[in-house]
Design brief:
One of its GO terms (cellular component) is cell outer membrane. This protein is an alpha+beta fold and about 160 residues long. The chain is about 45% helix and about 15% strand. It has 6 helices and 4 strands. It has a 4-stranded mixed β-sheet. The protein is elongated, with a radius of gyration of 32 Å. The protein starts with a helix and ends with a strand.
Length: about 160
């Protein structure tokens, strides 16, 4: 009886010793160096639906002519992309900033910036973006994009900027 028990224990120990994990075998055959498993590839570029995605892939600003608040064909192309993006990400709210160049009085430029922001808002809502998601603000000439007193600077400062809240 005692011999049978010893034989049974010996078979159990032998069976346990013969089982091994595949990783241990790999270590033994490569000298103990195991390559780390490849990490899943991270997507490159901005996260879809983020403010960065909006700026990089859609465009966040449109430009206006001197003393104008009507939309150019280039502006409507940008606003079409913005409207499509905003219809995809329906929980996003925006603020449209109206800006003017440095020429003119403060009061006049605040009013012009407001007309520019409303022009952008009206276009976006006409394209199907809910008006409740859109706010406007005018900065007039208070926040220039480019500092300078020349046409190149003024062109960049006459703008409407769509900001993701």
């Amino acid at each position: 009886m005692r011999f049978k028990m010893l034989s049974l224990v010996a078979v159990a120990v032998l069976a346990t010793a013969c089982s091994s994990k595949p990783e241990q075998t790999a270590q033994a055959t490569t000298g103990g160096t195991v390559a780390a498993p490849a990490a899943p590839a991270k997507p490159s570029g901005p996260v879809p639906g983020s403010a960065e995605d909006f700026i990089v892939n859609v465009g966040d600003r449109v430009f206006f002519g001197f003393d104008k608040f009507d939309l150019t064909p280039e502006a409507t192309a940008t606003l079409d992309r913005q409207a499509n993006w905003l219809k995809t990400y329906k929980s996003v709210t925006i603020t449209i900033e109206g800006h003017a160049d440095e020429r003119g009085t403060r009061e006049y430029n605040l009013a012009l910036g407001e007309r520019r922001a409303n022009s952008v808002k009206n276009y976006l809502t006409a394209m199907g973006v809910e008006a409740a998601r859109v706010q406007t603000i005018s900065y007039g000439k208070e926040r220039p994009q480019v500092v300078g007193s020349n046409e190149a600077a003024w062109t960049q400062n006459r703008r409407g900027v769509t900001v993701i809240n």
